[in-house]
């Protein structure tokens, strides 16, 4: 039951991170236009590289290490300060590298400087600690308050394309302020700092082991926007970013299980409960499949109505991008369950690292010809191909460790239900009027069809849900 609560807290946490972009996107699409949206997407993609290199894998490593020592207050205190101070130092180096980069870059200086506040904010991000101790509630409350203030600020101060700088500043400052508000909650868990006992740099090597897959992950998450902005136009980067933003918002709900299950599985694995860790995998894999399938088919079915309503007709090019990219919802849900929820907590770091490196390499290799041929559409296809390679390799690695029959037990039922739902909703989307009311009707009808079919086919997750609700 605690895992369910933590999942709900973390799902809320992930959704809150994306809440402001979701609510403000229709407004900003109209105010900033494709060019403004594209400049923000392109410059932010560059800044993410500096944040990545400054963070050196701490989010995953810190989460896991805190989970290992959370029952010992002295070790917990020592581990927190060592990892936190190490990250402060590496972020300082990353910001110095950014300033050097700024000297040599020719365009968008003002926007880069506004984005750079996000690098500073990363130094004070201690959400990994609270995830490690499995306290997700505090991050939810933090995000809710900060995001509401951010939302109000955007609608108050961002009125035209000339306010793009202010918009970027507001987003960057919200990250910094939000991260700082977590520190008062630390006193409940950690004791006094003893500098003489700290060994900061002994965390560097194991953190770097997890840093390698994060480099690869970030490459195939961000490089598309960077390459589109450089090879075609910032407008193309903007179109891709809008599609990607919607897909990532949906994925936040699905992949929230990964952050919740990592410390849970790591703790069980440390106690030698190997079979229990496999059962966790079977259950979470079934859950993410059940959730991601209707989301994948649903977003593809309503994209033609959703895009002009949400982004305006200026962004009609986003429609086919969303329909194709919707496939990655299921693929990333699977790779998150296999990688973040099993490979990492069971210390199979090499396999996890290899999978994301393969994904990054595939993405970069196919990106170049596909972007040159089809622009944003090519980048979207490259994203799908890279996710197929990641998930495929992870399944190959686990072929002798898990029972595929148990892993994919009800998958065919989810897919059949999803396909039937897609056919009905796609047909309705073509005949119903283009309005928010009709879109809501389509979503409701789709949800009813999907759940009804799952009940009809008696999938295990429905039985589990009924048991949880009775408690």
TrEMBL record:
Membrane topology: Multi-pass membrane protein
CC terms in the record's Gene Ontology section: plasma membrane
Record field: transmembrane: 7-29, 41-62, 83-105, 111-133, 140-158, 164-183, 204-223, 249-269, 281-303, 315-338, 350-374, 380-399, 411-428, 434-456
Domain of life where this protein originates: Bacteria
Annotated compartments: Cell membrane
Major localization class: membrane
Keywords from the UniProt entry: Cell membrane, Membrane, Transmembrane, Transmembrane helix
InterPro entries registered for this protein in UniProt: Poly_Biosynth_Transport, Polysacc_synth
Pfam families registered for this protein in UniProt: Polysacc_synt
Protein name: PST family polysaccharide transporter
